[in-house]
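quick one
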Amino acid sequence: MIILIGSNKGGCGKSTTVTNLAIAFAKDKKEVLILDADRQSTASRWGGDREHYKVAPYIQILQKYDNVQSSLNQLRDKYDVVLVDVAGRNSREMLSSMLSSDLLICPLQCSQPDLDTLGELKEQVVQAGDFNPKLKTYIYQTMASTNLKVKDKERKDFKEYINQFEVFKLLNSVNYFRKIYKDAISEGKSVLELGNDDAINEVSMLYNEIKNILS
Ligand SMILES: Nc1ncnc2c1ncn2[C@@H]1O[C@H](COP(=O)(O)OP(=O)(O)O)[C@@H](O)[C@H]1O
Ligand SMILES: [Mg+2]
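structure w/ adenosine-5'-diphosphate:
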């Protein structure tokens, strides 16, 4: 199974999603590999910190750039799941990954600059679909506000925006803005390995939703 976490926007939570999902799969006894196709190497650095701090389990991470399609096709048989992390722009790595992936998850904040990148993503998804009709695409709302005064309205606005696009489905899971996500990634950990129940529930919900989509 190949899951691409991709978007045309930086800083929307791709690497955070990849690292947390990697641990969710590993805890579920799946053989998981992260293909780090972003030259900024966030996921690889996270893996390095994990080794440095001797946090088990060890997560395999491979760095590949440019056209990663043939690498993905080889890795597909060797692992239960390959998670692909890419740069936050329209990149060759992202497009070539789309041709081999089963699922594309696009993390996005509910903010205009993030939402403005969906027109471009739509074109990419339509074109990739001509070559890879099995690709499923879901948008994942990230860094949502926990403020009770704005939370529901923000989700409603986000849903309305996504619903304008026929090619996108929206994940029910939502990722909220919580400091624990920053703490976790800086320690080479997932929030699943720390003590914040809200964040643990968020990642668990995301994991279960993805498992259902792929089953
Ligand atoms: N849910 C969250 N709450 C708070 N901070 C977050 C959350 N998700 C990501 N971050 C932080 O936001 C920044 C960008 O996240 P990152 O996963 O690196 O995005 P991307 O890979 O899309 O560029 C990082 O500093 C990360 O720690
Ligand atoms: Mg990143």
